[in-house]
Structure prediction request, 224 residues.
Amino acid sequence: MTKNIKLLAPSILSADFSRLGEQIKEVEEAGADIIHLDIMDGRYVPNITFGLPIIESIRGLTDLPFDAHLMIVEPEKYIKEFIKVGCNMISFHPDATIHTHRTIDLIKSNGAKAGIVLNPATPVNTLDEIIHYIDYVLIMSVNPGFGGQKFIPQTLNKVSKLKILMEETGREDVLIEMDGGIKADNIREISMAGVNIFVSGSGVFKGNIKENVKKMKENMYIFI
Ligand code: DX5
Ligand code: ZN
Prediction:
């Protein structure tokens, strides 16, 4: 059902923050579909990025959906705030909260799409009891914390496992997002595996943004 949905989500983590507004407009003009926001707290992951005031200040620059990837402990404490400043999609790591189901509910009842993130070592069966409630799954293809890491090929097998689970549970409408090490030269293979939303930081922002987006979009469309 969702196999022909293919969306590119540049992660602004690799943008030039001194020209953030311009670069957001540039990716939008180049054809990006979603803006991916990597929120890190220095506790769940060993890095700190940015938070609510930055999101609020860039929200007016684009109509593209904002996809917040929360790499923070106790995400439930901040979810309402992230939605209030304009995030349309919120994903969190289930091992960062005690009550996964309640946190999903909080996201959805405040009007955003809810996603669960699987780290490279987190098995797909973590989703067995919650697949019924979510809108998307974010499969990490690097360890969370930093941009510019190398794609872990083993994580592609999880896409097939997830597709089986989606079929078994009648949730073929769940979107599959993949994040980390995605570039113009591997996006086709990732797309073929069944991924719908491609997050890319360094693959988009390093070098020529327009050309990078164009190449990635050309390579990510597959018609089956
Ligand atoms: C890692 C982040 C990713 C990352 C993507 O924790 O979730 O979104 O910044 O960057 P690249 O595409 O450079 O791996
Ligand atoms: Zn991310």
Observations:
- Residues 11, 13-14, 36, 38, 69, 142, 144-145, 147-149, 179-182, 199-203 surround D-xylitol-5-phosphate (ligand 1) (CB under 6 Å).
